[in-house]
């Protein structure tokens, strides 16, 4: 289930975000969290099963959701959680087009290849 980020989840969200290659530096990670907490167009969602095991962050405009971050706990990878988060976002925002940014483009391409191979 995709839930909206709250300050109470800050530590787990920072831990998951730190798996993103461009979020390894603590100062950069703190800036990113501040952006999600203070800017209305930057929205962070957490994937919760029994525990929070993934997150997806977007920059939202009137028509587009640009995926900035996708991260899944390493012990839960290769289970389709990233794809499920994107699919759930599409269901939550049916009037928005969901597109990747430079950091998430490779993930989107991989998902599209897997769909084509099925």
Would you mind describing this structure in some detail?
With 118 residues, this protein is of the alpha+beta class. The protein has one domain: Gcn5-related N-acetyltransferase (GNAT) (Aminopeptidase, 3-Layer(aba) Sandwich), CATH 3.40.630. The chain is built from 4 helices and 5 strands, in the order E-H-H-E-E-E-H-E-H. It has helices spanning 10-17, 26-38, 81-92, 105-117; strands at residues 2-4, 42-48, 52-60, 64-72, 97-100. A 5-stranded mixed beta sheet has the order 1-2-3-4-5, with helices on both faces. Helix 3 (81-92) links the parallel strand 4 (64-72) and strand 5 (97-100). The radius of gyration is 14 Å and the shape is globular. The mean pLDDT is 93.
Separate helix tally: 4
Which fold name is given in CATH as the topology? Aminopeptidase
Report strand order across the widest sheet: 1-2-3-4-5
* CATH hierarchy class name: Alpha Beta
Mean pLDDT: 93
Binned, the helix content reads 25-40%
Keywords: Acyltransferase, Transferase
EC number: 2.3.-.-
GO molecular function: acyltransferase activity
InterPro entries: Acyl_CoA_acyltransferase (IPR016181), GNAT_dom (IPR000182)
Write a brief caption for the model:
Keywords: Acyltransferase, Transferase. Helices cover 39% and strands 27% of the residues. The chain has 118 residues and is of the alpha+beta class.
């Amino acid at each position: 289930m995709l839930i909206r980020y709250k300050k109470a989840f800050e530590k787990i969200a920072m831990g998951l975000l730190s798996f993103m290659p461009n979020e390894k530096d603590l100062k950069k990670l703190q800036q990113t969290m501040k952006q999600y907490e203070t800017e209305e167009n930057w929205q962070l969602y957490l994937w919760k099963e029994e525990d929070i095991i993934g997150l997806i962050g977007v920059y939202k405009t009137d028509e587009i959701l640009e995926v900035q971050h996708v991260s899944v706990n390493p012990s839960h990878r290769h289970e389709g959680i990233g794809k499920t988060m994107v699919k759930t976002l599409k269901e939550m925002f049916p009037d928005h087009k969901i597109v990747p940014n430079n950091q998430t483009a490779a993930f989107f391409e991989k998902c599209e290849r897997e769909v084509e191979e099925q």
